[in-house]
Every structure is written in C-alpha cells, then in structure tokens.
Amino acid sequence: MYVTLANHLDEHHDVCDIAEAPVSQAQVHARRAVSVGHHLFHEGDEAHNIYEVASGLLRLTRVLENGSRQVIAFALPGDVVGFPDGDVHHTDCDVLVAGEVISYRRQALESGAGDPTVHTRLLQAALKEISGMQDHFMMLARKSAPEKVASFLMVMAERTGTFDGGHTRIVLPMKRSDIADFLGLTIETVCRAITRLRKARIIALEDAQTVIILDNNRLENAALLD
Amino acid sequence: MYVTLANHLDEHHDVCDIAEAPVSQAQVHARRAVSVGHHLFHEGDEAHNIYEVASGLLRLTRVLENGSRQVIAFALPGDVVGFPDGDVHHTDCDVLVAGEVISYRRQALESGAGDPTVHTRLLQAALKEISGMQDHFMMLARKSAPEKVASFLMVMAERTGTFDGGHTRIVLPMKRSDIADFLGLTIETVCRAITRLRKARIIALEDAQTVIILDNNRLENAALLD
DNA sequence: GATACACTTTGATACACACCATCGAAACGG
DNA sequence: CCGTTTCGATGGTGTGTATCAAAGTGTATC
C-alpha cells in the first residue's frame, strides 16, 4: 500500500531524537506550539523556514484562479512541509489540530554547510515527498471515487489508526470538504462513498469523525461495491 | 501560467554551462547519448544516477496494480529526472525523442560533500519538481478535459514552441495515448478536445503531431468551448 | 430550552467523460 | 503491389460523479 499523504520519515528515527538532539549549530531548529487555525505560511510568502510536524495536523492548500481549492496534503507527525520553490512558499499551510512543529532554517536544507545530519534528513524528506506525490497522481487521475475514499481511509488507518477490540479506529479531524478537496471529489460524493462502505459493513461510524474499520481486506479492494 | 510538466531549471543558466564546466570532482557527471525506446531506468531499479536532459524528450511512467498507466511527466531539456525514493527509482523512464542526458551520481545530490554547485543545482531541481507536481495536482483534480488539454498545449508551447508567421508552432512528439495518460483522460477525449479546439479556430493541425496556436487568448480560457 | 449556524447526509437530475465500435490514413513488411 | 499493424479521429451509448436541493445532526449562543 503506497502512501498518498505527505510522507512520513523513517519511523525508526523518532522525531524526538532530532528535536532534542544536541544542537550543533546555533539557531538550527526550534520547537514551537501551534494552535488550530494558525497559518504557518501563505502562498507567496518568503520561505524562511521548513517545518517538521511533531504533533497535530497541518493542512496544505492551494487555490486555482477559478476559486476552487485543492488540498495538497495533510501533514501528520513526522512529515516535513514548506519546501520552497525559489524563495517563496507555493502553498498555504494552516493548523487543523493543535500540536508542535520543529522549524528549520531554509539554509539547513539548501546548504550542505550546516549540520549534515539535519541536511540529509530534510533532503530525504524532500525526496520522499516527490515519490509520495507521484503516488497521489495515480490516485487523482486513475481511481474511482469509492477507490479514492477507501485509499484515503487505508492511509489514515496506517498512519493514525489505533487498535480497539480487534478493529482499527481512525479519527478524521478534517472536514468532509477537506477530504473532498484532497481527493478531487465533491463533499457529496465523499459522503456517499462513506455511506456505501458503511452499508456494506466494511466500516462503521461512531460519529462523523470517527471510523471503525470492520473489514480491512474488503476495504483494500473497495472498487467492487454493491 | 504554471508549469505542469517537470520543471525546467533557471533558463538563464544554460545546461551546457554545467555539462561542459570544469569538473572539480572525478566522475561527478558524464554526458551521454540516448536513443528512442531506450530505458534509463525502471521502477524498482536501484538508483545510481540522476539525469538532466540536455536534448530530446523522456517519459516518466508508473503502472497501477490494475494495469492502468500514468505518465508522471515528460522531461524536456533542462529537466532533471530520477530522484530516488530511498535507494530505488519509483518510476520507469524511457526515451521518446533521442537526445543527450547528463548523468550525475546520486551522491552528488545526497551528499553535500562533493561539488557544491552541482549539489545545489540538483537540490533546487528537486524543490522545483515538488512545486511543479503540486501544480499538476490542481490540473488532474480540478480541471475539465478541455481545460486539461488546453493547459497542456500552453505548457508545451511555452517550453518547446517556435514562432512562425505570428503564430506559435508546437510539435507533440508523444502519442495521444501518452497525453491521455498524462492528463488522466482517455485517448478519445484528448482527440475530441483537440478537434473542438481546431473547429473553434483556436488551433490548427499541420499533422497529428504539429499544432499551430491561432488564438492564444482563447486557448487560455478554453473552458468555454462551443 | 429555544434559536441559529455549520456540517453531514440523502435525494433527484444532468451531463461530461469512459467505453465500445468503426473508419481512414500512414507506416511497414512480404 | 496488397495485407497487416498502428495511430488518430469520430459516432453512439451508458454511467459515475457533479450539481442542485433539502433534510438531518450536532454544537454554540443567548
């Protein structure tokens, strides 16, 4: 199963290792709390920092001329966001779930002169991002609506799911409109896909934000509904 | 107008500057001719090199479990391809138009220890790639078929177009199926979109591969056809 | 507890695009 | 020269998803 969200770094390399590692260069990075609704940066802002999510959930968005919005990615703990294009950020980034981020100076990525560990780490994050986005291409271009929603749930389960009585429980902190804008669908289509998964007893909803995966296998091949 | 193909490097910094620059590190890069049909790498291959296109046209593809193919990008002169995910390539890459590529050792990107000029250049190419792919997201997810085709023609015109009696001429070396797989459409839909643009006198076809842009303005807002 | 608002869900309809089939043109090989 | 193949273009049909509309659910406010 490939990852369609922004990519997590090597899981064996815990975020805290970095955040609390001895600082070899002054001002290389700093941990910082962020609250819901706060914008880390806007599209067009000069890019001073790159951020690694320590906890919480970020949303990266972009707006088309016609006003339609695309959610580029949801950034979960371990993800790195804010890779600049030239000198500026090319997406908006705001906070959906409060948490902490580690900010790195842009130079930590762009120059090999600083801490080589951080440099390599950020670089690998950028490369993983490219790979993950290519996966996302496949999904946007080639999957049906139910397949997209099922894939999304699978990825969220893999990354944020908790076990609970033999089943996996997922919390979806984002709104249906965010999911729709992430998958290239409408809100209604997302709802319907979820409803059909529910009626097929593949998933169950505790509430609108909380999904229980009842049948992982069928969720994987969720193209064949009804 | 944003770029939906793989991203060109700074145009003022000609490819040849690098290719023929004094080599400060042995084995840093090598120029090499590639012929039509040749594969530079396959998905899953161990990634030894990163390639910059000097001339010709490359195609990056990926295949879904169900067999459907996605063209991730067409790589034109100035583009860099083959950014690894971990140790392996995550796309296929083959040659659509013969030309020359400059191959760099993967270390030239991943380690800051080598030639810093090359390192920075490859890194910036990777960052531009991320930005360009985000643009491509917008197109795949949010644009209609005619808009996608029009955008594609605009980008090709911008990058490869030649002027000819007041109009821009574009050569499309790839097949309709490649364009379709790039845009997330079917061959038929691409053909029909082109036909409608032609009947609306926005473009003209010299032959199937050669497009003349008759009305740039209307091509930009090509949602409103008929 | 009543009202208001935001969000989710469900229903009905329309249409864009996929799918299937056909045909013409060009390229190729015997 | 003519069969074969490949590619592009076009027509007809079906369906998945967008769109429009409205009801349902939860949460905050007074």
Largest sheet of chain A: 6 strands, antiparallel
Structural class of chain A: alpha+beta
Quaternary structure: homodimer
**Taking all residues together, what is the mean pLDDT of chain A?**
87
| Shape, per Cα inertia axes of chain A | globular
Number of helices of chain A: 7
What is the rounded Rg of chain A?
18 Å
Chain pair sharing the greatest interface = A-B, 37 and 37 residues
Number of strands of chain A: 10
What is the percentage of strand-forming residues of chain A? 25-35%
The run of helices and strands of chain A is HEEEEEEHHHEEHHEEH
Low-confidence stretches of chain A: 1-26
Helix content of chain A: 25-40%
Distance between the termini of chain A: 23 Å
Keywords, separated by commas or semicolons:
DNA-binding; 10 strands; 226 residues; 4-stranded antiparallel beta sheet; globular; homodimer; alpha+beta
Q: In words, what does this structure look like?
A:
Two copies of one chain form a homodimer. By secondary structure, chain A is an alpha+beta fold. The first copy, chain A, is 35% helix and 28% strand. Chain A has seven helices and ten strands. In chain A, the strands form two sheets. In chain A, strands 1, 2, 3, 4, 5 and 6 form a six-stranded antiparallel beta sheet that branches. A four-stranded antiparallel beta sheet of chain A has the order 7-8-10-9. The structure holds a DNA duplex (30 and 30 nucleotides).
